[in-house]
Design a protein that fits this description.
Elements lengths: L5 E10 L7 E6 L21 E3 L1 H9 L2 H4 L4 E5 L7 H13 L3 E6 L6 H7 L4 E5 L5 H7 L5 H13 L3 E7 L7 H12 L4 E8 L5 H7 L13 H8 L7
Parallel strand pairs: 2-4, 4-5, 5-6, 6-7, 7-8
Antiparallel strand pairs: 1-2, 1-3
Helix pairs in contact: 1-3, 3-4
Bound molecules: iron/sulfur cluster.
Length: 239
């Protein structure tokens, strides 16, 4: 069988923000969505990045194994890793042969047989529920809320431990009502044990400038820390 080849944007050897414990994080190149809050517009181009074989990445990840401890492992993020689901499947399968825990960070916007195959090798999913209203999804993401919800229903069916993630953007989704809706979604799916509310950040402005693109949410301020804390207090069982 021919080895699959993946296009990788970048690698973070010891990440602590994308999944449990210390993780080797692979950011895949390419995304079909255009979130107006996107921090990584430089990952969008599906033709960019550097080519890797799954075994090359696993060999690199193994160098950090001693730091993974009981909880850590590999996380594949993006861009949107589901665009290269066949490659990520092969990567995760090799990780499992090495007893490395696998975590997938995704928008959950694609669900087909290749993705289901990948999920069979996935130990945990970090699923972005970017908004809890379909209108906001259409306006600010470029797909429907029903896509990640369908994805979440499948994760629940397969009993894959899942963390829901949402970037909190002032004036758009920083209300208590939104977080209560997110909690409602979590409560309907027993695979969800945790919700992460992430503050909207604008450090990516320089990436947009370098690419000659407008940052659609460049005019929106970053949220204050106490706003995020107050929202977290609405969902104590999931934080
Ligand atoms: S899914 Fe992620 S990488 Fe793609 S546009 Fe949205 S935030 Fe950016």
């Amino acid at each position: 069988m021919k080895d699959s080849v993946g296009r990788v944007h970048s690698i973070q050897s010891m990440g602590t923000l994308d999944g449990p414990g210390v993780r080797f994080v692979v950011f895949m190149q390419g995304c079909h969505l255009r979130c107006k809050c996107c921090h990584n517009p430089d990952t969008w181009d599906v033709c960019g990045g550097t080519e890797y074989l799954p075994a090359e990445l696993v060999a690199k990840a193994c160098r950090y194994r001693e730091y993974f401890g009981a909880e850590g492992g590999i996380t594949v993020s993006g861009g949107e890793p589901l665009l290269q689901a066949g490659f990520v499947h092969d990567l995760f399968r090799l990780c499992h042969r090495e007893n490395i825990h696998t975590c997938l960070d995704t928008s959950g916007s694609i669900l087909n047989d290749t993705v289901r195959h990948l999920l069979a090798e996935t130990d945990r999913v970090l699923l972005d529920i970017k908004y809890t209203e379909d209108g906001l999804y259409h306006d600010h993401v470029g797909c429907s809320l029903s896509a990640p919800l369908e994805f979440l229903a499948y994760l629940d069916e397969q009993k894959i431990p899942t963390t829901l993630r949402q970037v909190i953007i002032p004036g758009i989704n920083d209300g208590k009502e939104n977080v209560l809706k997110l909690k409602e979604i979590a409560e309907k799916h027993s695979c969800v044990a945790q919700i992460e509310l992430l503050p909207f950040r604008k450090i990516c402005q320089t990436k947009y400038d370098a690419m000659g693109l407008p940052f659609p949410f460049g005019h929106i301020p970053e949220p204050k820390r106490d706003v995020i804390e107050a929202l977290q207090n609405v969902i104590p069982d999931y934080v």
